[in-house]
Amino acid sequence: MADSGFSLDGQRVLVTGASVGIGAAIASRLANAGATVVVVSRSGEVPQSKGAMRSLVADLSAPEETDTVIERAVDLLGGSDVLVNNVGRADPMPFADVDRDYFNAYIELNLWAPLRLCQHAYEHLAQSNDPSVVMIGSVDAERPSPGSVVYGATKGALSAATVALSKEWMAAGIRVNQVNPGLVDTQLASEIVHSLKESGESINIAGRVGLPDEIAGLVHYLVAPVGRFANGASFRIDGGALALGPFDRWQQ
Q1: How many helices (H) and strands (E) does the chain have?
Q2: Would you name the residues annotated as active-site residues?
Q3: How far from chain centre, in Å, is Cα 97?
Q4: DSSP string spanning 133-185?
Q5: Alpha-carbon distance 3 to 143, whole Å?
Q6: For the residues 14-20, what does the mean pLDDT come to?
Q7: What distance in Å separates the CA atoms of residue 87 and residue 246, rounded to the nearest whole number?
Q8: What is the rounded distance in angstroms from the CA atom of residue 212 to the CA atom of residue 2?
């Protein structure tokens, strides 16, 4: 029998960027826990799951589409209890080569889209008995990598917004948290993952890259009844990558 603290029976969930990778794992896990999940993606693909999932096609890099997503999802779900902002882009570029179009595109998708969805979702979440929002950030929010000046800035800004939103929405009972994954074995990170496997280099204490379902497990906790004490916080899940320094590697 499933632990009732992790049951999501009756919960209405929206997950963005959910056709593959971490987003797909989150959508599948929450649906398997009893939630009805609307999966937002450009492709319209729905991850495999034993639970109830529906597809909503939208390109969140386009503001006019972002502005309609919440109402379209509410029409499908009949309300909203959980919003998981997973959509984002991560294509590194040396800052000397960054132009305004590249910068604006990152701001649009990685920062404005999730915050705009929060704006539109507020009135629906405020009517829920157990509302929550989870932002999917990155360890780059804390320690950006070379080539990730803009990416890290957007994820750091999202982390700050998470804290501010949790305070603004406290009276409505809406919890807001952020999950900051390290390197995870997804299509987006496939080249880096392959390179590390070839070299045998250890980049964290765990000695391996993460799995999408491990990130989904933390999201599940945060949106479930058992996670109700978590609010206004960013949770790093990186296998101990940021804890492991160069001198630690030398001692291994």
Answers
A1: 8, 7
A2: 151
A3: 27
A4: EEEE--GGGTSPPTT-HHHHHHHHHHHHHHHHHHHHTGGGT-EEEEEEE-SB-
A5: 36
A6: 94
A7: 32
A8: 21
* Rounded Cα gap, residues 126 and 124, in angstroms: 5
Distance of CA 219 to the CA centre of its chain: 8
The token duo for 29 is 């896990």
Tens of pLDDT, residue by residue over 154-179, are 999 999 999 999 999 999 999 999 99
What letter would DSSP give residue 18?
A: -
Higher pLDDT, 45 or 96: 96
- Token pair, residue 149, equals 């000046």
| pLDDT digit string, tens, across residues 27-41 | 999 999 999 999 999
Place of tokens 């390179």: 195
Length of the chain: 252
Residue that the structure tokens 């939630």 belong to:
35
Count the Cβ atoms, other than its own, within 10 Å of residue 197: 12
Type of residue at 171: A
Residue 140 CA to residue 161 CA, distance in Å, equals 16
